[in-house]
Amino acid sequence: MAFLARNMLICFLFAVLTMFMGLLWFMENRHPSQDYSEIIERLNNDQIVALEFTGNKVAFTDRDDHTFVTTVPDVSKFLERVQGKNIRVVVKQDRFNLIYITIIAAFIVTLVLVAWWSLQRSKNGEESKFASDKLVSLKGKDLKFTFKDIAGIPEAKEELMEVVTFLKSPANFKKIGATMPRGILLQGPPGTGKTMLAKAVAGEANVPFYSFSGSDFVEMFVGVGASRVRDIFKEAKENTPCIIFIDEIDAVGASRTTGASAGGQEERGQTLNALLVEMDGFNTEDTIIVLAATNRPDILDPALKRPGRFDRQINILAPDVKGRKRILEVHGKKVALHPEVDFNDMAKSTPGFTGAELANLVNEAALMAARKGNETITNQDFEKARDRILMGVERKGMVMTDRDREILAYHEAGHGILASKLPKADPLHKITIVPRGMALGQTQQLPVSDYPAYSKDYLTTKIIVLMGGRAAEELVFKQQTTGAQGDLLTATQIATDMICKWGMSKTLGPQAYSIESGGFLGGPGSRLIMGNDTAKRIDKEVNELLSSCYHEAQRILKQELSLLKHLSEVLLQVETLDGEEFEIIVDCSLKKDAAATKATEDSCGTGTAGADRSESQRACDTDAIAA
Question: Which residues span the domain enclosing 480?
């Protein structure tokens, strides 16, 4: 701020000087100018009564009291012409150029002095430190955030409680010779609460909390990042016990063997070296804990994770169903809830949601309730908020023909029937043909519980359900549409992972052909080196798995053709069905088919015996199938 104020002051002074110079110029050139030949003519005709010389410039006044300005090439010769005439002559000193040169020289000297003064202050440490503009320093008394405000990750809280105890009572640990880890690395997917945990540790221990981002150390000029690191630890050592938190440390702590531009690699390398040296330079009396968070622990430099630096890694993953319920209860205390709201069901319907996504769910539900003018949030608001997060905003203005809606209804009905008929499939939650986001319709399944691992039967069943939309289209309309694009992509990815990553192929055996390369960010797998013959075998295995699942989907839908037709008709009318409504439709369809079959058997089997009865029964069955 001080540097900015000085710059503004210099600009203001420069503007004032410029205005002053312009005023002087205006004062010197306030009279109109005239050619030298005209003044000679006026002089010869005795029309000039007064002359005023300022250097080579001459201001002359005629008998009509008009003043003009001109420039004479030779003053001495001009004065010879004036001699002997009754003309008043005045000579002034040319001060304008002298003033102009003096002001410009003073301005340049002032500018040099200000620049030198700024450099001296920066050099002597009188300026603010490199890290001061990036520092977020919170004292413990100002930190109201504690472990009570965090839910869903009990293991991480228990692990970090030891750090809190050490910061509160370090003497108890030093008494028996124990030392706490200098650095603790919090690693996990985005939105799982890594930053909140770091703040909660400082809040529980009531110690200063210095927060930075890894990108704060990466600058254009080499050496600035390393200087910031030194400033941080110098500040922290003056305020022990304290916590230094570095968010997204992979921005500065990436492995030094990875390729990068020469300048960027040199800057990152110096900054990382400074960080490693500072963490090794802690004295035994320094009660400083360095917490860091990252989504990419796989790319961190090995020297950063060795014992003595970040020698303790805590994995913070997405919460399970119990953790999701507790997180919803924590965020639910901040909003007005209707008494009927049940977070137990909501936790079951949000598998894979992180803490940040659950907080967003509560906020979206509150926004929807506010739009409707309600005073409390209901289960319906949470349901709509969840659909908006998962599927996107409802596209109410989209126009679809009756034919397209019918194809879409059969497509989603095919998914729903397979999800209900396959024993290993997740229970059906909702079917809708209302366009949302990029999807025209969607069939949602919710798992009964969180799966720690997936079986081959479960994954195969998932592929069969995904093939249900395309199978229904071909079975009823004898055509294929682009509506199955997302289903085919997901099915192909699952089948490829089964063969290449999880070794679920009898032909290729228990061998992995791809590895993860995206850390907790879920990036695409990177292929290992393999021969052409192996690649062909993998492609064949994936194709055979997808084809067998597609044929199985067609077989089941052929058996349930009447249910497929009935379900699609209902979807065309109501557009959305939940799991209970779907089960009611399935039960009604089964009862209707059973009644029709019984009526057909009674009408076809009465009064017939032997071969005549068998032939009549076959004809009746054929008519019933045709109908």
Answer: 402-583
